[in-house]
């Protein structure tokens, strides 16, 4: 266990530190290679990990490509400006609407898409509105939190959702039916606690006349109108795929590529630029870190977790759901939610026939919300902080952790109880 733990800890340190601009994906792959060379994992383990994560990884690529094309034609900027105009100058309304916009983007375009695409747009609008830095940080913290807390309702809303749904053969419709209420509760609870914590930094009034009209953000009217139809058809496609037991990646990646081809035919985007700028490092990061953490599985971590989960199961369904969710949340906060969801899925599966499927959903909720307690808990947060740093906004480890540790536990508890009750 010592060797596997050491490789993981060193890899994670370099992922967070990024010395000399060492990319997170490169670091994770190096860690995986070291684990392989030292015998912590085998080639067969690499195949097992790849089999678990391939659908999630390809789906992520498709969603990001789709998001980048939509961003290029002005879709998200239009949404942000509409949100601001709807507020009628009320700082409180703008705060709530920005969270709802983040929840919408996270649900349909995944939490990483929300972090990569929406964050710079919102930051730009806050600066145009001439808000002070405390107010800007308040809006950004709220947006960063909702990107993960709202990534629950659909299988493709988060990579952790896809991995778990595939692992336990949960269909698209079944997943949505079980997670729609926790999603709604999570959004409402997030709004409440974000307001309670950040209300002093929210301006009472904002001068929305400083913002341009939403229509001016649209760069291609035809593609903009088509995008709404395409998104609706794509969502229908996911349900059709569910009926025929097709992988999520068929529609997520297929949809992203088709939309890119349509936009290219309309001369709305430059395809080479979209492909080049796509965050490929995220792909290597997810696969590499999964392999590194699988070494911990080989050393008996999942066996220990299975014993804990079996103990939880003897104490009643509600206790088991809440305890499983908090266990996943704690592990995600210290070792990232990507590998945590896989390790916990394996541990749950080891329970055999005694496993309650509700625990798989509790694992997802814990892995989606729990990472917000630390800056390195989720890939979306790492991307979010990286985007902000490039834009001149630096949020320290202590500042973020203080915020995350205050807001995450109560929201997580409420969502897990909603899962247990409904």
Automatic annotation (TrEMBL):
<keyword id="KW-1003">Cell membrane</keyword>
<keyword id="KW-0813">Transport</keyword>
<feature type="transmembrane region" description="Helical">
    <location>
        <begin position="56"/>
        <end position="76"/>
    </location>
</feature>
<comment type="function">
    <text>Involved in arsenical resistance. Thought to form the channel of an arsenite pump.</text>
</comment>
<feature type="transmembrane region" description="Helical">
    <location>
        <begin position="400"/>
        <end position="421"/>
    </location>
</feature>
<keyword id="KW-1133">Transmembrane helix</keyword>
<keyword id="KW-0472">Membrane</keyword>
<keyword id="KW-0059">Arsenical resistance</keyword>
<feature type="transmembrane region" description="Helical">
    <location>
        <begin position="316"/>
        <end position="334"/>
    </location>
</feature>
<feature type="transmembrane region" description="Helical">
    <location>
        <begin position="176"/>
        <end position="198"/>
    </location>
</feature>
<dbReference type="InterPro" id="IPR000802">
    <property type="entry name" value="Arsenical_pump_ArsB"/>
</dbReference>
<feature type="transmembrane region" description="Helical">
    <location>
        <begin position="246"/>
        <end position="266"/>
    </location>
</feature>
<feature type="transmembrane region" description="Helical">
    <location>
        <begin position="25"/>
        <end position="49"/>
    </location>
</feature>
<protein>
    <recommendedName>
        <fullName>Arsenical pump membrane protein</fullName>
    </recommendedName>
</protein>
<comment type="similarity">
    <text>Belongs to the ArsB family.</text>
</comment>
<feature type="transmembrane region" description="Helical">
    <location>
        <begin position="278"/>
        <end position="296"/>
    </location>
</feature>
<dbReference type="Pfam" id="PF02040">
    <property type="entry name" value="ArsB"/>
</dbReference>
<keyword id="KW-0812">Transmembrane</keyword>
<feature type="transmembrane region" description="Helical">
    <location>
        <begin position="96"/>
        <end position="124"/>
    </location>
</feature>
<feature type="transmembrane region" description="Helical">
    <location>
        <begin position="223"/>
        <end position="240"/>
    </location>
</feature>
<feature type="transmembrane region" description="Helical">
    <location>
        <begin position="136"/>
        <end position="156"/>
    </location>
</feature>
């Amino acid at each position: 266990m010592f060797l596997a733990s050491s490789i993981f800890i060193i890899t994670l340190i370099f992922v967070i530190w990024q010395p000399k601009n060492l990319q997170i994906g490169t670091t994770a792959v190096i860690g995986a290679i070291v684990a392989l060379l030292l015998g912590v994992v085998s080639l067969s383990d690499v195949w097992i990990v790849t089999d678990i994560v391939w659908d999630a990884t390809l789906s992520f690529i498709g969603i990001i490509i789709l998001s980048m094309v939509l961003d290029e034609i002005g879709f998200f900027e239009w949404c942000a400006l509409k949100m601001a105009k709807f507020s009628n100058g009320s700082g409180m309304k703008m705060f709530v609407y920005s969270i709802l916009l983040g929840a919408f983007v996270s649900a349909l375009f995944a939490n990483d898409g929300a972090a990569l695409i929406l964050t710079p747009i919102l930051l730009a609008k806050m600066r145009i509105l001439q808000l002070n830095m405390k107010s800007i940080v308040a809006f950004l913290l709220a947006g960063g939190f909702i990107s993960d807390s709202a990534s629950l309702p659909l299988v493709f809303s988060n990579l952790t959702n896809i991995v778990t749904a595939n692992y336990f053969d949960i269909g698209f419709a079944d997943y949505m039916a079980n997670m729609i209420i926790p999603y709604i509760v999570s959004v409402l609870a997030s709004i409440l606690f974000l307001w309670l914590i950040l209300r002093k930094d929210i301006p009472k009034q904002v001068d929305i006349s400083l913002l341009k009209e939403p229509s001016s953000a649209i760069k291609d009217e035809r593609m903009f109108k088509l995008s709404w139809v395409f998104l609706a058809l794509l969502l229908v496609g996911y349900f059709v795929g569910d009926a025929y037991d097709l992988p999520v990646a068929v529609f997520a990646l297929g949809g992203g590529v088709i939309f890119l081809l349509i936009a290219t035919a309309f001369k709305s985007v430059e395809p080479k630029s979209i492909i080049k700028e796509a965050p490929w490092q995220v792909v290597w990061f997810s696969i590499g870190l999964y392999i590194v953490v699988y070494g911990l599985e080989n050393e008996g971590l999942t066996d220990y977790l299975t014993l804990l989960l079996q103990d939880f199961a003897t104490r009643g369904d509600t206790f088991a759901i809440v305890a499983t969710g908090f266990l996943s949340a704690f592990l995600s906060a210290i070792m990232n939610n990507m590998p945590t969801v896989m390790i916990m899925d394996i541990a749950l599966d080891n329970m055999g026939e005694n496993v309650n499927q509700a625990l798989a959903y509790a694992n997802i909720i814990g892995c989606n919300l729990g990472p917000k307690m630390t800056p390195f808990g989720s890939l979306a947060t790492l991307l979010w902080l990286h985007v902000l740093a490039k834009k001149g906004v630096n949020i320290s480890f202590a500042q973020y952790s203080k915020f995350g540790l205050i807001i995450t536990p109560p929201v997580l508890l409420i969502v897990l109880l909603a899962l247990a009750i409904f």
